[in-house]
TrEMBL record:
Identification of the protein by name: Acetate--CoA ligase family protein
GO molecular function: ligase activity
Pfam families in the cross-refs: ATP-grasp_5, CoA_binding_2, Succ_CoA_lig
Keywords associated with the record: ATP-binding, Ligase, Nucleotide-binding
Upper classification of the organism: Bacteria, Bacillati, Actinomycetota, Actinomycetes, Kitasatosporales
Source organism (scientific name): Streptomyces atriruber
Sequence ranges assigned to domain ATP-grasp in this UniProt record: 534-572
Amino acid sequence: MLGSTHGTFTTDPRRAHVVACGELPPNAVHGRAATADDLDVSGRPLYAGVPDLDRFFRPASVAVVGASDAEGRPNTGITRQLIAWAERVGARLHPVHPTRQSVFGIPCFPSVADLPEQVDLAVLLVGDPLPVIEQLAEEKVRFAVAFASGFAETGEEGAAAQERLAVAVQRSGLRLLGPNTNLNAFEKFREDLEGPAIALITQSGHQGRPVFTMQELGVRLSHWAPTGNEADLETSDFISYFAERPEVGAIACYVEGLKDGRAFLLAADRAARRGVPVVAVKVGRTETGARMAASHTGKLTGADTVVDAAMRQFGVIRVDGLDELQDTSALLARARPPRADGVAVYSISGGTGAHFSDLATEAGLRLPTLSDAKQTELHQWIPDYLNVANPVDNGGHPVGDWRGRKIIDAILDDPEVGVLICPITGPFPPMSDKLAQDLVDAAEQTDKLVCVVWGSPVGTEDAYRETLLGSSRVATFRTFANCITAVRAYLDHHRFTTGYRSPFDEAPRTPSPSFRKAQALMRPGQQLSEHAAKQLLRAYGIRVPREQLVTSAAAAVRAAGLVGYPVVMKASGAQLAHKTELGLVKIGLTSASQVRDAYRELTDIARYEGVTLDGILVCQMVERGVEMVVGVTHDSLFGPTVTVGLGGVLVEVLRDAAVRVPPFGEDQAKAMLSELRGRALLDGVRGAAPADIDALVEVVLRVQRMALELGDDLAELDINPLMVLPRGQGAVALDAFAVCR
């Protein structure tokens, strides 16, 4: 049913209503109205709606409810700032106060109903915005901002008050920013700066201040959305909106908590489709919610692990600090797409070049060795005894004359070089002044990225303040680390978005035949036995060993003959998660007598432990291969997640796993394997044959299909071990564990 809760995804009732009626707001899906066909197999939306926020940031008219001009009152300062902002954006401002005739000489109205015109935006300077919401709805106000605090940030009582506010807003039809927000949306932005801009989204206003002040360094900002407690408008809404703005070159986010994981991924997907980079600092931890910890998969996927994987999966660049946020977003906003992914390091000191090159290589940047011909060319201007292979060391003196520019141009002319980085560890005029100017001049003549690290702690030098910061083509940093982080993000972003294919476009819309088979096997609220869990896998075409479930020693012997010796015997019961620890697994049985003895021993242990069995499994023994784990768990934000990692005993020791949020395609499944520290085991080590990676990827994709289709019914799935056989021989699920919701 549309508008209901699907697993852990709660649909916005307003959006659910319009979907149920067969439409979404204009531009919801690539500029058109969306229909119910734009839902995935679980009824979740596949595309991000784009709220029309033009009238929020550039309203024609504004009402300030609670306006004041009384000195010493907090509302007075806010009113004064809003009047100045309204003048800048060309909006008509109407103060609203029940006892004032005018505010700062502007006619004041006793209530919203008395306003002389319909307003686009109402700014609420009242302690309790709830009573005002219905008045705004009656007057068809489109947007409101609530500064009031004392809501979800204060505890349970405040959270309940915020929920009441959110419900009132949803019924009203207006869109609300806040509560517990601030004036950042109404800051004064410099209008003399050109080029692509950064759009800023913060849940804490002060944390966006470093990015905002980058305007003083010549970096353009276009918007600031301080989302506060996100009772209605959230980070995802602003990402979707900013991704469509032609002036926005990058979106910088400071996120303390995500309101809706699905909405965030849809917004990130929209930005990726448009090629707009999203850079985010994400702090805190999501609530993992109640989950059974019996499976290995559940132990492997912590909440922040899922957030990190989801961001990476949809191209969101996660950074750790505000300094990285400002430097990375500034570079991504302003730099042209790379012509090549090679990085050349150029310095006047061999030590500086070697140090930077070590750090860059360790971070994954590619520093190609320059060709012999290019090195010969560079040695026209650089002494022969200096290294010019990359890093390029000029020894210092060529910087001070005509040779300096020749060297820079020659490096940039190399087809393998897409980025030139020049670390200047300290000022040494006049050579540093000449070097900075040559780099700026060269940057103006090339479509390749030129970066400078100005290492002086002072930062008042003309070469830095005037020459480097005065250039919109040179990316200037103060630390090696921030430069490397930003350049890596720049290259990764363009790799990711070049030919980007949205996983939502390929997500299944209708259930598969496997789904109908699997539904009959589900037992709501129960844990499935290994035998039942393997039937679930079979329904989705995942290979399991030849096996039979038996309830007598004689039947076990007959089953062993049919399965083929040697065999494995295991107790099978709905309450068994870890059979090995209880001694309920016997391997390598080669005769009828061993099978009979094993049957008696397994049933005796089960009786002693008080475990109810549905029988004993007699299984084909599969020995050769790499043991992996593949599973499904539920995250409180993102819903079903798929995990793959090293399995068997290694899962407990190494905890080496990768996570993705469905839907995802084959490329992401392969990328999961590349993230594993033990990836080399799949390629074959110590003479072992390479594993059947294609079969492993196919299992991951089939498990993903299970997660999508059974998301409301499957709480947890654990295949461990999944034995990945040598190349061309497939993969076999030797054990399985499942819990139904």
